[in-house]
Design a protein that fits this description.
This protein has 21 helices and 14 strands. With 480 residues, the protein is of the alpha+beta class. It has 2 domains: 251 residues, D-Maltodextrin-Binding Protein, domain 2 (3-Layer(aba) Sandwich), CATH 3.40.190; 208 residues, 3-Layer(aba) Sandwich (D-Maltodextrin-Binding Protein, domain 2), CATH 3.40.190.10. The strands form 4 sheets. Strands 1, 2, 3, 4, 9 and 14 form a 6-stranded mixed sheet that branches. A 4-stranded mixed sheet has the order 11-12-10-13. A two-stranded antiparallel sheet has the order 5-6. α15 crosses α16 and α20 packs antiparallel against α21. The longest helix is centred in the last third of the chain and has 24 residues. The radius of gyration is 22 Å and the shape is globular. 52% of the residues are buried.
């Protein structure tokens, strides 16, 4: 485990349990690879290209797969269109390594211009400071300063769809540039549904249980019925659906959160239902926390009929299901019928503008961030990955092209987020040390799943105490 090192006044010594956690695949599906905090190959030199005179713009992202390839291809296109700039994209295996490396580069005076970081650490990145005590990042709204275009590149902030726009708008100002945004949706084996006489995918928890009963009664029934990764993000979705806050101060939106609620009614409802599904042999646990690949494989090998996971995998799951010989249908995440559905929160990550850049570097960075999310690029990013189209313009382009007519599963996540009510719960929580708090949730869930007789209430009470100690310690550091 590694230390985050995003502490005020260069405080680097902190209990490992406070902030050091394993940054495995998050809602944005970053690869699970450990690495040390080092700069990428090629270094972080910011001097202009001596041959072209182009201003260098470095963007560091937490992808090392085909998504990095896509970003580099787009950077090359941008550089051709705007030769006064030279954008380079470097990939990191996970967000922790990237963030540690950016802080190290900041200390050395050569940080990247653009840094990619996932949504759950928004509070931490806003608390991060440079060695001079200045904020590490600058809000994109402040940098854009009301402009509608930058050197001919249209500013897309006003076109960003509501869910990510609302999440990254803090203190009334757009803080960062949304890029890869997802939600939790349900994937169903349509062939199994038809065989069991089920006309529509289940929309509620009760309907999930009814569907599982029918599917497991089939002559050639799968071993289990449903699975999802043991990740706190899934739990957070269920909390938002029930309009339950995860933290005080209106989920940290009205002030710094000082208390989290892991023993709330909404949390108890979901954990109890999850445990009951597991005890009935409906839910199958792979035995590993945050096991995105294992749960996907269980669904694609038809060991289960339903998979609850990130919409970022929509393209891959739909195509892989077809290759395996069955139809995949996507639908909204089932909700607690006793409470109703308020909506869902986002997952994924965003692009942050580093503070203190030279004027020309900041201009180029802003140009690229907006250009990368123009309708054509945002639509292509969606097609390639499954992340939602980040702007209304991209959605309109996809509709004109007939993309959604041919690929209806690809629209489910966008529709689910668009139909969500706007409440503090569905906006998403802003809380310090959230990754470590998430780890408490997944550990508690695992204990409930593997220990059949464990009491949900007592387990959540213990988890709540642990999480609040983590938050208290984190907030104390910010006051020093």
């Amino acid at each position: 485990m590694k230390n985050y090192r995003f502490l005020r006044r260069n405080i680097l010594s902190i209990t490992a349990a406070l902030i050091a956690v394993s940054f495995t695949t998050q809602a944005c599906r970053s690869p699970e690879t450990a690495a040390t905090a080092t700069a990428p190959e090629g270094g972080t030199e910011q001097a202009a290209n001596p041959q072209t005179g182009a201003t260098p713009i470095q963007m560091w992202i937490a992808f090392t797969d085909y998504r990095l390839d896509w970003a580099r291809e787009k950077a090359a296109e941008f550089n051709q269109q705007y030769p006064e700039f030279e954008v380079t994209v470097e990939g990191y295996p996970d967000y922790e390594t990237l963030f540690d490396s950016a802080l190290l580069a900041s200390e050395q005076g050569n940080p990247p211009a653009i840094m990619h970081f996932f949504e759950a650490a928004t509070q931490e990145i806003r608390d991060a400071v440079t060695p001079q005590g200045e904020p590490l990042v600058k809000s994109v709204a402040q940098a854009i300063d009301g402009r509608s275009e930058i050197n001919g590149v249209p500013v897309i902030l006003n076109d960003v769809v509501s869910a990510p726009r609302n999440y990254y708008t803090i203190d009334g100002e757009f803080q960062s540039m949304p890029w890869n945004t997802s939600s939790t949706i349900l994937f169903s084996n349509a062939d199994m549904l038809e065989a069991a006489g089920i006309e529509e995918p289940p929309a509620t928890w009760e309907e999930v249980e009814q569907a599982c009963e029918q599917i497991l009664a089939l002559p050639e029934a799968p071993a289990n019925c449903i699975t999802w990764p043991n990740h706190s993000w899934i739990v957070e979705q269920a909390m938002a659906q029930q309009d339950e806050l995860l933290a005080n101060e209106e989920n940290g939106r009205e002030g710094r959160a000082t208390e989290v609620f892991l023993n709330s009614d909404g949390m108890t409802n979901f954990m109890t239902w999850w445990k009951e599904l597991n005890d009935q042999n409906y839910y199958v646990y792979t035995g590993s926390q945050r096991d995105w690949d294992g749960t996907n494989n269980a669904f694609l090998s038809q060991q289960v009929a339903f998979l609850l996971t990130s919409s970022s995998d929509t393209t891959a799951i739909t195509e892989s299901g077809a290759e395996a010989g069955f139809d995949v249908v996507a639908s909204f995440m089932p909700y607690n019928q006793a409470v109703g559905r308020s909506g869902n929160v986002i997952g994924g990550a965003t692009l942050w503008l580093l503070n203190g850049l030279e004027a020309e570097t900041e201009t180029g960075a802003l140009m690229f961030m907006n250009w990368l999310n123009n309708p054509e690029n945002a639509a292509d990013w969606h097609k390639v990955t499954g992340y939602i189209p980040i702007t209304d313009g991209a959605i309109e382009l996809l509709e004109r092209e007939g993309w959604y007519d041919e690929n209806p599963n690809s629209k489910v996540a966008s529709d689910q987020l668009a139909e969500s009510e706007t409440t503090p719960a569905t906006l998403g929580v802003l809380v310090g040390n959230f990754v470590a708090i998430r780890d408490v949730v997944t550990t508690t869930a695992e204990s409930l799943l593997v220990n059949q007789g464990q009491d949900v209430d007592s387990a959540l009470e213990s988890a709540n105490q642990q999480a609040n100690r983590l938050l208290e310690d984190y907030n104390a550091l910010q006051e020093e």
